[in-house]
Design brief:
Helix 2 (24-56) packs antiparallel against helix 3 and helix 3 packs antiparallel against helix 4 (98-131). 30% of the residues are buried. The protein is mainly alpha-helical. 82% of the residues lie in helices and 0% in strands. The protein starts with a helix and ends with a helix. The chain has one domain (2-164). Keywords: Membrane, Transmembrane, Transmembrane helix. The chain crosses the membrane at residues 6-25, 32-51, 63-86, 107-127.
Length: 169
């Protein structure tokens, strides 16, 4: 789990580095796309992963691999479609007061990096832990807290969306 935590920190800081130079408008659109794509990736990814597992006809120990692939494939497709739609719908970037742009743009980029890292944490840790592949009781305290804090935003977003879906059944 040490290397998973290092990967999460690397993705988090890379996400900050990539979004800090973007403007407020671009980061806000990215954040909205993430807020839609994460529940979509979770809701669509599980059935898609189950379907892939049934088609592959492999051992039960590989089940979580297919769920992981289903999460990321559905997330990638929904993010791609949303970004294309947002780019077509918003051909002109909004201009903000320069002082506001200077502060809010990087802050929104930080939110994008946190949410993307949280989605990565959710997909990397949730599947193997549920399958019993990773034993989290052997982790160091800093590893547990790292995974817990990085996992929280996406987990709560998915949980809230899942509760809303259950209400309409």
């Amino acid at each position: 789990m040490f290397y998973v935590c290092i990967l999460l920190f690397f993705v988090f800081f890379a996400g900050i580095a990539m979004t800090i130079g973007e403007g407020l408008w671009s980061n806000t659109v990215n954040l909205l796309c993430l807020l839609i794509s994460i529940p979509t990736g979770y809701i669509v990814g599980v059935p898609f992963g189950i379907w892939g597992f049934e088609q592959a006809d492999t051992s039960d120990g590989n089940f979580w691999y297919f769920i992981f692939a289903g999460y990321w494939l559905s997330f990638f497709v929904s993010m791609l479609v949303l970004r294309v739609l947002c780019d077509k719908a918003s051909r002109v970037r909004m201009r903000f007061i320069p002082q506001f742009e200077m502060v809010a743009g990087p802050l929104m980029g930080l939110f994008v990096a946190v949410l993307f890292t949280s989605w990565l944490t959710f997909t990397i840790v949730y599947g193997p832990r549920q399958a019993g592949v990773w034993d989290t009781s052997k982790m160091a305290d800093w590893e547990k807290s790292t995974i817990q804090y990085f996992n929280a935003p996406a987990y709560n977003l998915v949980l809230a969306f899942e509760d809303d879906v259950k209400k309409f059944k």
